[in-house]
Amino acid sequence: xxxxxxxxxxxxxxxxxxxxxxxxxxxxxxxxxxxxxxxxxxxxxxxxxxxxxxxxxxxxxxxxxxxxxxxxxxxxxxxxxxxxxxxxxxxxxxxxxxxxxxxx
Length: 104
Known about the structure:
Elements: H1 3-16, H2 24-44, H3 47-67, H4 72-83, E1 88-91, E2 94-97
Antiparallel strand pairs: 1-2
C-alpha cells in the first residue's frame, strides 16, 4: 500500500473510531509512549520491535495531527521544503544546520 493510501486508511480508521475528535493531549502522551518503546527496542537491538514502534509512532502522529486540525501530509511537505536547501555539517552522525554551528 502506498503512503498516500496508508494515510487515507488511517484517516478513515480514526474517524470510524471517533479518534479524530479525541483529546490531542492524550494522543501526544500516546505518541511519547511509542517513542519510549522505540528507544527501548533500539537500546536492546530488537529490530522487529523497532519496526513495530516506528509504525505505531506514524499512526499516533497522524492521529495527533488530525486532532490538531493539521494535515500530516502538509506538515511533512513543509518540513521537506524547509530542509531542501539547508546547509550544515554532520558531526558524530548528527546533522547540525549551518545557523547552529558556532566558531568556538
